[in-house]
Amino acid sequence: MNHYVYLIEKRNALPNQEKYYIGVRSCETAISKDDYMSSSRSLLKDIQDNGKENYNKIILKRFESRENAYSYEIEMHKKFDVANNPFFFNRVNQKTYGFGGAKGQNHPRYGKKHSEESIKKIKLVREKQIFTKESLEKLKGRTPWNKGKKNLFSHTEEHKKRMSGIHKGNKYAAGKIWTEEEIKIKSEKNLGLVWMNDGKRNHRIKPKNVEIKKLEGLVMGFFKKKVEA
Asked: Which of 24, 110, 170, 229 would staple 73 via disulfide (CB 3.0–4.6 Å)?
């Protein structure tokens, strides 16, 4: 696994309108070939509006471990105070080893909620996402990152028992017998959706949102962990 901290720079920006983004990334491909940009909504929206070709991705530093990469990202975020710096797309300063693993008061959105106006704006942005035939063609023939790989994720016996307890009595649990009406409703609901995964779980994505999810790190395909006999 390769780990690095990178800088996204907006090209040909007018004076005092420069924009940057500092992020961390881990990937199995060669860093020079990794086309991941960011999971930042504001940056991805800007890329969609102006075209990916108008942004430079600069590798700031490579690392042997994810933890060291996070440490450097935290250092850079603090140095430029990216959360309060109008020249950065970053909305928060990295303070922990990964926002995804941060919980409780350590999470950057702890105690915060989206306003009704904010929710409407998010919906509006997603509804306007349009992908060209060229971008959709690029997705065809891609090999899922987990194809042919075995035992990528495993659970302890204690975790399995806890999961089993949670699903007991769940109407969607294994063994449920679906009525014809339920099958029809479920089929119509999923019609036209595309399967993508983040290496842990599957997501049903609208075709028009495939490209934006790709930039966020999701890959095409259905993730299924092999069950050992």
From this structure: 24
- Phi/psi for 205 (5° steps) reads -120, 140
Kindly state the tokens that stand for 163.
């999961």
CA angle (211 as vertex; 210, 215 as ends), nearest 5:
115
Contacts of 122 (CB under 8 A, 6+ apart): 41, 114
Please give the backbone phi and psi of residue 18, each rounded to the nearest 5 degrees, phi first.
-65, 150
Domain ranges within the chain, ordered by starting residue = 2-127, 133-165+179-220
Using one digit for the tens of pLDDT, what is the confidence trace for 89-107?
Answer: 998 888 766 554 455 555 5
Contact 97, 65 (CB under 8 A): no
Return the residue matching tokens 């934006």: 212
Does 194 score more than 80 pLDDT? yes
Q: How far is Cα 177 from Cα 132, in angstroms, rounded to an integer?
A: 41
Q: At what angle do helices 41-50 and 116-127 cross, to 10 degrees?
A: 40
**Please, what is the Cα angle at 61 between 200 and 152, to 5 degrees?**
20
Which own/partner contact pairs does 76-83 have at CB distance under 8 Å and 24+ positions apart?
A: 76/5, 76/22, 77/22, 80/22, 82/22
